[in-house]
Amino acid sequence: MPFGCKVSRIEAQALAAAVSLPERPVPEDADVVVLHGCAVTDRAERDQRRFLRRIRRENARAMLVVTGCLGERDPEALARLPEVDLVVGTSRLPELTRLLEERDAGLLPGKVVPAAAGGSSDVFAATFPDAERTRAFLKIQDGCERRCAFCIVPSLRGAERSADASLVEREIRRLGEAGVAEVVLAGVHLANFGKERGTDLLGLLSALESDSPGCRLRLSSLEPMEAGEALVDFVATSRTVVPHLHLPLQSGAGAVLRRMRRGITPERFRRLALRAAGANSRLHLATDLIAGFPGETDAEFEETVRLVEELPFASLHVFPFSPRRGTRGAELHASHPVPAATVTRRATRLRRLGEEKARAFRRAASGSVADAVVLRGGLALTDHYLEATLPAPLPAGTRLVVRLSAAGPSAVLTAVPAVEAGSIPPP
């Protein structure tokens, strides 16, 4: 069972395929249940501990294994839980079948199998597309060496490591040849892909642009501090990489960004965002925002609101600040907390603003054509990350050009297959 971010889910799906375990749901007669957990917030940990108790009640005889960031956070504490049989460090996941056999044979000295020196799991991990060949996800980078004040991930994932670019390119081409319509590249710090190898993400994408792999590519979240103008320009104008950029901002106030240790200013983010939108008006620009970071004043929050109103965002991911033990943010929260009611009110306001931005983006897309991939359930996912309902069912995984139409106050989209000769206009 996977919890957490896209990288965690990719790892869980790859693990399930490697050891022939269903990803979900948990069968009542399961012999082994593996929870690939998340540790990004205290609340996530609490939720997953409740889940462990429920799984134990429902699967009294199953061996219950915990992996992922949850297993890295405090493995000894997890091992003391009566529900847990084994805690496996993420870098040991390729050995899971052998470890389970050794545990059954009484050969393991305890309930914790720590991570091997050097960090987490194999860098390269893939979700294997289903028979309908809709989308595939590739984890090509792991680790983060930034020290953002709110984030515990660097201490769990270790140093930055990247897959070999030639291996990634070959796998993308293999997936394209197999009929997969879209491949999503993911990493803990994807913008720094290849840094320790003397390569970079732009080089990988340029190679794929010059000789199309037969599928479209989508990038997961990119830290704006490292993404830079060249990569943003490439994504905005590429024929292979879809026009979709997720650049986490977190706050629009310079003072808050400094307390967060983000390494970027609102001015620099503004220039990057406007540059991307100026290069391609169809580009879907998304961001993350944290409401109520310790010490955030009303005036600082209003700076965030003004910046968000100014920039052409298509979607916002808003999170109320949650102190994470072991981070600088938790220390700041102890001395300068923002009242919980204020945090909730600010998060609600940002989410409403995000809804307005999303509706405006959908309305702007109405009447235009887009490259789309058919998903299950009669939906199409466009290149610029909009979901639209198809008037008639088509096989999942079909890639086609559609014409979009928005209707009603919420600007709900429908997608009608366009004339066969239709094509997506250049940026």
Q: Explain this structure to me?
A:
The chain is of the alpha/beta class. It folds into three domains: 6-113, no CATH class; 125-362, pyruvate-formate lyase- activating enzyme (Alpha-Beta Horseshoe); 366-417, OB fold (Dihydrolipoamide Acetyltransferase, E2P) (Beta Barrel), CATH 2.40.50. The protein is 37% helix and 20% strand. The strands form four sheets. Strands 5, 6, 7, 8 and 9 form a five-stranded mixed sheet that branches. The longest helix has 26 residues, at 340-365.
Average of the residue pLDDT scores = 87
Strand content: 15-25%
CATH C-level category of the largest domain: Alpha Beta
What is the makeup of the main sheet?
5 strands, mixed
User: What is the molecular shape?
Assistant: globular
- CATH architect. name of the largest domain: Alpha-Beta Horseshoe
User: Would you tell me the structural class of the helices and strands?
Assistant: alpha/beta
The CATH superfamily title of the largest domain: tm_1862 like domain
User: How many structural domains are formed by the residues?
Assistant: 3
Low-confidence stretches: none
Rg, nearest Å: 22 Å
Number of strands: 17
CATH topology of the largest domain: pyruvate-formate lyase- activating enzyme
Give me the number of helical elements: 14
